[in-house]
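Revision sheet: structure tokens.
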Amino acid sequence: MKILTLLAALSLPCALTAAEQTFDFKDPKGVNHASFTLDAPLEAISGNANGVSGTLTIDPAKPEATKGSITVDAKTLSVENSLMKQHMLGADWMDVEKNPAIIFTVDSLSDVKKTGDTVTATVKGKFSVKGVEKEISVPAKVTLLPGRLADRTGGKLKGDLLVVRSEFTFKRSDYGINPKAPTDKVSDEVKITLAIAGSSPK
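Predicted:
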């Protein structure tokens, strides 16, 4: 009996963490992307970036303990106008040669509400753009899709999916993104829309 009790005690930590999963957001299909919009009175600018990577570790029973980070390759930022894209990637704006990554690191979740496999929450974390890091809080909707990785990969991989959606704004002047640019032509407020899926193969 003592041996059985000891074995049960040793296995308890594994049981407690068995539901915890890590999801990888490096999408081989290249579908994951972040969109951005700057809506100024004289001109609306929109584009996207498809260089998304990173991992999130989540326990469906304790979603508030979610940890990880999402990274966007700044060099993949794109707009339709080629000259505008050149300026955007240059030193006055994003300076991607010196600052190749845009990173959001998750610190904590609050206001967590769970409905089935979907969690909505306020995510507090560190947002790093052009070498400037600030703490921000953003809304997020996270949906766990058990067993749906095969559907996304055409049956090549089996496992689970984690879909993350978020929409938030920040001021480019707070991050040194050409703060002198006239705001009637280039909005100081940047709207980010994120809809990405992470995979956890089994």
